C-alpha cells in the first residue's frame, strides 16, 4: 500500500485489525484509549521503620490497579504486566509520625526482570514536625520489571511511617505510577 494523504478525517472510533475498539473520540475532542495502565497504592495504618535500613513500604490498599500489576503486603510492588512495556511516570510520598528531628529518605527501587535490584531515584531531608517527602522519576520499563518504594530514617530507633492525616483523613503514604506511552 502506498501513502494515504487526506485533509480531514471524521471518525468516532478507531479499531485494530481484529475489529476491537482501540480508541474513541468524543464530540468534545476527548480521546479515550481502549486500555490504560496505572496504579495508586496507600497505607492507612502505621508501619514501624527501623533505624538505618532501607525498608520496603508494606502498602495495604490499591485504589487503582489496572491490569492487576500491583501487589500489597510485605513485598508490595508493581510488576509491569504483559504488553505494557513503555515510558512510566512514578511517584512516592511518605510522612513519619514524629515531631522529632532526624534524617529521612525515600527511594524508588527497580528490579529488571530476572536481574538485580537497584535504586533509581531518591530524596533525602531532615524530618522536623511531621515532614513529608516526595520522590519521582520517568523510566522506560520492560515487561516483568518490578518497582518498590522504600523508606529510610536515622533517628537512632524505630519510627512509625504515618497512615492517615488527622485533619483530612487522607493517606500520607502513597505510591503511584502510570504508563505514558
SS field, number of helical segments? 0
Biggest sheet descriptor: 6 strands, antiparallel
H/E element sequence: EEEEEEEEEEEEEEEE
Report the radius of gyration as a whole number of Å. Answer: 20 Å
Describe the structure.
There is one protein chain. The two termini are 27 Å apart. The relative contact order is 0.25. The protein is mainly β. Strands 6, 8, 9, 11, 12 and 14 form a six-stranded antiparallel β-sheet that branches. It has no helices and 16 strands.
Topology record:
Elements: E1 13-15, E2 21-25, E3 31-33, E4 38-42, E5 47-49, E6 55-56, E7 61-65, E8 70-71, E9 77-79, E10 86-95, E11 102-111, E12 117-127, E13 132-141, E14 146-153, E15 159-161, E16 174-179
Antiparallel strand pairs: 1-2, 2-3, 4-7, 4-16, 5-15, 6-14, 8-9, 9-14, 10-13, 10-16, 11-12, 11-14
